[in-house]
Amino acid sequence: MIASFLIRSTQSKARVATKLASPIAGLRFKSTGSKVKRIGFIGLGNMGLPMATNLYNGFKDQADFIIYDINQKTTSTFLKDHNTDPNNKDKVKVAKSPLEVAQEATIIVTMLPASQHVEGVYFGKDGLLEGLGEKHLVMDASTIDQSMATRVAKVLHEKGARAIDAPVSGGTGGAQAGTLTFMVGSRTNEDFETAKPYLEKMGKNIVYCGTNGNGQVAKICNNMLLGISMIATSETMNLGVRMGMDPKLLAGILNTSSGRCWSSEVYNPCPGVQENSAATRGYTGGFGMPLMAKDLRLAVNAAVETKSTVLLGALAQQLYNQMAANKEYEHLDFSAAYKWLSENAK
Ligand code: NAD
């Protein structure tokens, strides 16, 4: 009798302990055990909007939401789609500033274009930093330079908050499907494990890259290769078409041959080769030209700092810079490199 009580009691203690240890059980914050009442998301653009939607859908039964973006159109869309609970009119709130997000939410994701936007949102007037403390976990998924990521982490750590850099790969399709790859830089493995359940709602591969800033290292290297391979695929497709080859047939052959790469197989830049590609929908949406130009700038700057040779990376940067500075191209997806080559380089 006593023995069976002891077993039951031990089991129930173990259940309680497991519940407190899990960052999503009753949605409690792992370090303090305090309840996560609200999750915040800042930057609901091409990537952020579908990511925030997946995060919301994953946690809506356990926590409320607060969002912020300087573009009211995108916050209104999110609000209209998700603030539908008649018993909780504040299920989703739109913040007036990043500071308000920090004051209301303990788990925060940011998804911003570049380093200067991250600097403004974190360190600017009414920025996140003013409201952050020990109860916060902040995950920055923007692609920015390694030094800004380490600066953000250092300052947040000094305030007692947890901070990770978690840039992503997988494009807008991956953001919508919740299949992104997250490249995570974090101070400790424990911080990584605390962040993981949230990232898993938005991605399929959550990879620990080492200390803060290392997520950005992986991301910058990946995107330098992507930028180069997209130009190489565009040159190849343009050459084949001009030599009289059917583009779908050529792409099919490349994709079962040694020339195959992500740009040829998943995101072919030639219109009509794939039904759902940015190329087939007039290069709209997707990964904007200025963002690719920015990522190659990050790579080339890092190469200068580390005395690395990046001949093709530097050449690719020149081409994306030209396209990003051209009014017809600046709002197009980066795969419009094919359009540039086929229309301009005659
Ligand atoms: P985007 O320009 O579509 O979205 C950025 C959002 O941030 C916009 O809604 C904008 O209004 C908002 N914003 C800008 N400044 C702000 C501020 N000060 N405060 C609040 N909100 C602000 O960009 P995106 O395509 O979603 O990319 C976001 C990040 O993800 C970039 O760093 C990009 O390099 C990276 N990324 C993009 C893709 C892609 O395919 N688009 C893929 C992987 C990684």
- Along the chain, the helix and strand elements come as HEHEHEHEHEHEEHEHEHHHHHH
Question: What is the strand content?
Answer: 5-15%
Tell me about the largest β-sheet.
9 strands, mixed
User: Considering DSSP H and I runs of 4 or more, what fraction of the residues is helical?
Assistant: 40-55%
Which of globular, elongated, flat, extended, rod-shaped describes the shape? globular
Number of helices: 14
What is the terminal separation in angstroms? 89 Å
Put the structure in a nutshell.
With 346 residues, this protein is α/β, with parallel strands linked by helices. The chain has helices spanning 2-21, 48-59, 72-82, 98-104, 115-123, 146-158, 171-177, 189-199, 214-242, 247-254, 262-265, 289-306, 311-324, 337-344; strands spanning 38-42, 64-68, 92-94, 107-110, 137-140, 162-165, 168-169, 180-186, 203-210. The protein binds nicotinamide-adenine-dinucleotide.
